[in-house]
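Practice problem: predict the structure.
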Amino acid sequence: MINQFKTVLLLGALTGLFLGIGYFFGPSGLTIALIMALVMNLISYFFAHKIVLFMYRAKEADKTKYKGLYRDVKQVSELANLPMPKVYIVPTNAFNAFATGRNPKHSVVAVTEGILELLTEKELKGVIAHEISHIRNRDILIGTIAAVIAGAISYIAFMARWGAIFGGDRDRGGGNIIGLLLLGIITPIIALIIQLAISRSREYLADNTGARLIKDPDALASALIKLHDGVKQNPLKFGSESTAHMFIVCPFNMKGVMSILSTHPSVTERVKRLKAIKF
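Answer:
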């Protein structure tokens, strides 16, 4: 119920942003923006996961080549009483994984080529359990939609900038410039809020649920340490920071103040909580 409410709020935020941009173009712009927002809402709900997979060049994994990966995903999904997700491979030597899809029947677990080389079989199973826990806990729709919305915000700001320069209501004069400046300040803040709306508590919950599914919290703890250290040496070199919250660890090298604003809780605290799990 909470995630459904968040979904409605995020789709509403997207609508508001498009209408806000449309305001700069007068009544006709407002109408066009409304139509665009409605279309974007539908696309976000039904196709957001495909957009994210396309963004990361993910391809469905070959069942013969990745037989062990399919076996682990099948075993963990059965433990979680979920339908078998589709399995995708992201062609990069970076170390990470994510889950996407609008519901358990239309879910995907994606892993990078690098993570398959880095982790042991037990550690990889811990990662898969974490991602399937996101599916089980109904986090994947809200996470995927948030990624698309946060990415759309950057495009909206770009569209407003060029619209103010070459279009818009000329009679407003300085009003357009002031509005543009406000958008330039506000839109990054909105993007940050949307990313942080994906509560860090969902990562803790997925860690806990996954560890309990496979009854091996040490495997996931060990994997998280390796992945965290791996990102420092080999961050993801493509994609968008608007999708960072979808991965098991932040795929980009966040430094200084930006690390404080990370959508992920600290790996140290995650490992500490996993070590405290007792059966």
